[in-house]
Amino acid sequence: MSVLRISLRSFFAHKGRMVLSGLAIVLSVAFVCGTLVFTGTLNTTFDRFFGSLTSDVRVGPVEEEHAQETGRPDTIPAAVAGRVASVDGVAAADGQVMTEHLTLVDADGGQVEGSGGPTFGADWGPAIQRTMDLADGRAPSGPGEVLLDADTAEREDVAIGDRLEIVAIPGRVEVEVTGLASFRDTNPGAAFVLLDPAVAAEELLGAADTISTVEVVAADGVSDDELRQRIVSALGDGFHVETRAEGEKALRDEVGFLDVVRYAMLGFAGIAVLVGIFLIVNTFSMLVAQRTREIGLMRAIGSSRRQINRSVLIEALLLGVIGSVLGIGAGVGLAVGLMSLMNAVGINMDTSQLTVTAAVPVAGLLVGVVTTLVAAWLPARRAGRVSPMAALRDAGTPADARAGRVRATVGLLLSGAGAAALVAAATADGSSAAASLLALGLLASLVGAVVVAPLLASVVVRAVNAVVLRAFGPVGRMAGRNALRNPRRTGATAGALMIGLALVGGLSVVGSSVVASASDQLDRTVGADFIVDSMSSQAFTPEAVAAVRGTPGLEHVTELASVNVELTTADGETTEEAVAAADPTYADDLRAETLSGELVAAYRPDHLSVPESFATDHGLAVGDEVTARFVGGETTTLTLGAITSEDTVLDQGAMYLSLDTARAHLPADRMPSSMVLFAKAEDGREDAAYTALQENLRDFPMYEVNNQADYKQLLEDEIGALLNIVYALLALAIVVAILGVVNTLTLSVVERTREIGLMRAIGLSRRQLRRMIRLESVVIALFGALLGLGLGMCWGVTAQRVLALSGFSVLEIPWPTILGVLGASAVVGLAAALVPAFRAGRLPVLRAIATD
């Protein structure tokens, strides 16, 4: 009989035992393929949207490097459109007004916004009409009338005839919605408000006879690059001219989160694949063990080691191919499900744009097949080394004990190396070296824990048995012995669960420590009672600043802006720095520690403070002078008033000067708008001032008022939301690990059929048998949880010590989370044992005893 026929017969004879391993492959491949399809579709959606927003050639204002963030849109003269239209090869040249420096407010004072995307204001002119169509109502005519994009109108429940307000740096404008416009392609989630071209420049840009860009359509036969060169020659310097490809790339770069999403999801898919490897190794190891006598007979009648090895690998190949094919299909379904989820939260994705490239099935097959073959290689090799006589006697291979000693030695060495790297990372002085040591320690300790798990099983499982199973009497003792019967199998099964829980434990420690450190810094360094921040990163309008300053019960209000300055020190080096320009009261609102001088001195005219590292690098001391060129403004000399400590989370490494110094050396139109406001209440009037401040900003929903308690809660909620996303992605790895527990128990029941029959024959009831198997599962799950959470806490503590170099100095262990995960692991163990325990209880006693 050929090796292929033997493999096929064995595969289909054990097809029930292969199902769970195949399911692990399906889930792993589905996550990989689903990620590729989902992110590919997301990229397609944004690319098509960006393509609809760009023209063949675009002419706009020069993009000055490190320009001041004034909060006002850059413009060019409207007459430039006429000059461009006269260039040979231009089919159309339309001036366009467009800005995202605005907020849309409804009649109730709520913010009308895109679903995660920006809000754009534009003119309803020829350029935008090449992208959008009037879907309902009529076009705007004159001041006070606008179109709203249909997606935003539906999501925000805005109808034709509703009154809105546009809030921008030029001022507030009350408008009426006269119609709805729809995109010809899918809008991922941006909001668009469209004004009459005759008034758009005045109301959105603050000046008539100005435009944002000239959108150019090339004549037939003229390439974009060629037309761009002609326009540059005609206009000369002073303008930024880009082709469609350059414009799309610039827009794509602004949404760099797409790559982050893709690589993050692929990273978690890789974790699921790694966990799946444990499951497949266990499955094939147990199948080989159960076929020991069969393998011995095959060897006795002439089968070579190579043929036995090949037979097992062929079974693995079949499992990998079938699982991969099913996983590819499931991945496409997963991507569609994710798209539906994105649509539910307001980010529009259309299944008609579903992007399934050739890389998707190729990646799915590679991941599934290669993973399965790699995982089956060790069991296949072990099967080939079984001698005929040993197999016929049901004895193991003589090399098993020696292999176990080698494994334990390697595991201990790797674990020791990982522990040493983690200790070195925790005690390192530099952030870069600490991060590298942390990465090395994570990898070495993870691999070491996986390899040494069988050795640890004999120790930890005994401790778990003594604590957890003592109350269950003889049944508990039998369950504990079963878990210890094959430490390698128990270690591999628990190791799969360990990986996911180690990441959960480590990230929970890091997240809690970051929140605790920031809260501690707020308590120690923030003197302001209130922080007024922009929810949409929009600069503060003069009206909003006036509303804050006019709030009764406030002792002072501090404005904070970021000013770009080129600093030239005495050593001749010039660096571009973002300097915090603030009112002098900022020294009270944020009590930064100084190493030399006093912070209040930094707010004197033409004075500056620098952080310790900058002073050390350039040999500066208090009283020294530096040459400062304000980008877009004057060059002057600033005197060093203070050197600040960098042992902080808030404003670490910041430089300070006064707003008056910045205003003295920058033109009014280049002066950055304030991005954050701080306020201090008069003694005893904190509550009244808080209420009054919120009321004064009721008409400015894009700004949020927080007291210190609010700010701490906001930080905790943001970290918590991020961790929840990570936990959700890790859930796949944990699900695969649970499948591993189920598969191990199922195969273990098959392996112990005769033993179970004998126990039933001498009086063990079905209920006791099922309890024994459930307790065995709980022990394995708790072993994996203890190993994973212990390893994760070591990672988390080390990571916190590395973060302490950046000011996050408080270590906090989230014991409720850790204990909750440990308890959930026991529940997972119970759930994983339901099916194997039920099947064991249904085994007929006589047939089980007669099993060979």
TrEMBL record:
The chain crosses the membrane at residues 263-289, 312-338, 358-380, 410-428, 440-473, 494-516, 725-750, 775-798, 818-838. It is a multi-pass membrane protein. The keyword Heme does not apply. Residues 268-388, 728-844 form the ABC3 transporter permease C-terminal domain. The keyword Transferase does not apply. Belongs to the ABC-4 integral membrane protein family. This is FtsX-like permease family protein.
